[in-house]
Every structure is written in structure tokens, then in C-alpha cells.
Design brief:
With 179 residues, the chain is mainly β. The protein is 0% helix and 45% strand. The chain has strands spanning 25-30, 35-36, 40-50, 59-66, 71-79, 86-91, 102-109, 116-125, 131-132, 143-149, 155-160, 167-171. Strand 11 and strand 12 (167-171) form a beta hairpin.
């Protein structure tokens, strides 16, 4: 209820050149197809997102789930194809939207060409308003970060059923990214 002074610090350490192996990056993958009535629980998924062909050799070493305040869980599976089989890669007991755990995979895993990720988000909207997708704290999201190497760049990707038959999109790289 009152202003609060907050501070943070960071320490950067230079890595010796001989220790450098690969540049890493991330995919931020999700769906905007969120529809949560007031005072209700809802689940989005499972949603399949097909991995772009230029990432067929990517080695995934970490996953972090992301929702806003009504999110109660995020799970992610690596899928060999749209029909599976699936391998769980992110399923955190007691998952919390405000402090989502990062699951590290050592060794990293790969997704075969034609495969992708299947993800699910659960919600409990205890508020008085309908909630849909958006960037506001009063809106919701169903996304996850997939950290990988070697880098092909950072992407924001999503699957939606709001376009007939479903549609996968990654930005940059698609003409719709500029809309």
C-alpha cells in the first residue's frame, strides 16, 4: 500500500575464449487461444506446435513455463510427430506462475524433423471477469521458453486454431509478423 525502494545487482564474469562452445538462444512458444469464463477453471491444450525445419538439429537444454496470475500449471512434451509419441520435458510439481521453475536437461534433447512440442496450460479464474489472451497482468498467456543451441536466433512462436485448420507462426521469418 506504500512505495517501496527496491534494488538489484548483477555480476558478469568474462568467459575464457577456450571455454566457449556454442551460442544458445530460445523459442518462446505458446497459443493465444485462451478463453476463461469468470469464476471457473479452464485448460488450454494439449496444443501441438510443429518445430520449424531450420531447428531440426537444435539441442534443447531447458524449458520454463509462463502464464499470468490465473495460471496454475504448464506442462510440455517433446513430440516425435503431431500424433506422438510424446516425452515429458516440463512437468513441475507445485508449479507457480509467479516463480516458474526452469527444468534443465543434461544431456540436451532433440526433436526429430516433423516433430514439435505439445503443451497444456491450466487456469483457475477466481475473478469476476472473463479472461482472454493479452500482455496485461489482467489478461492471460500460455507460453513456454525452450532454450536451445546452436543458435538460429530468438523466435516468438505460436499455434492458433483461430485460423481455419490451425496455424503455426514464428517471428521473425513470417510475413504476418509485421502486422
Amino acid at each position: 500500500s506504500a512505495p517501496l525502494d527496491v534494488s538489484a545487482t548483477s555480476t558478469f564474469v568474462t568467459m575464457p575464449a577456450k571455454q566457449y562452445k556454442e551460442e544458445a538462444d530460445f523459442l518462446f512458444i505458446g497459443s493465444p487461444d485462451i478463453d476463461i469464463p469468470a469464476h471457473s477453471k479452464a485448460t488450454l491444450g494439449p496444443v501441438f506446435f510443429g518445430l520449424p525445419d531450420d531447428l531440426k538439429d537444435a539441442k534443447f537444454f531447458g524449458i520454463t513455463g509462463h502464464t499470468h496470475q490465473w495460471g496454475t500449471n504448464v506442462t510440455v512434451q517433446a513430440a516425435d510427430s503431431k500424433d506422438g509419441p510424446d516425452k515429458p520435458v516440463y512437468d513441475v510439481p507445485g508449479w507457480q506462475w509467479s516463480e516458474p521453475a526452469t527444468v534443465v536437461h543434461d544431456p540436451p534433447f532433440t526433436v526429430p524433423q516433423g516433430g514439435g512440442f505439445r503443451f497444456t496450460c491450466d487456469y483457475n479464474n477466481t475473478g469476476a471477469n472473463h479472461v482472454g489472451f493479452g500482455e496485461s497482468a489482467n489478461d492471460e498467456m500460455c507460453f513456454f521458453w525452450a532454450y536451445y543451441y546452436p543458435s538460429q536466433g530468438a523466435y516468438v512462436c505460436f499455434h492458433t486454431t483461430q485460423i481455419g485448420g490451425g496455424y503455426d507462426l514464428c517471428c521473425p521469418g513470417n510475413s504476418l509478423c509485421n502486422l
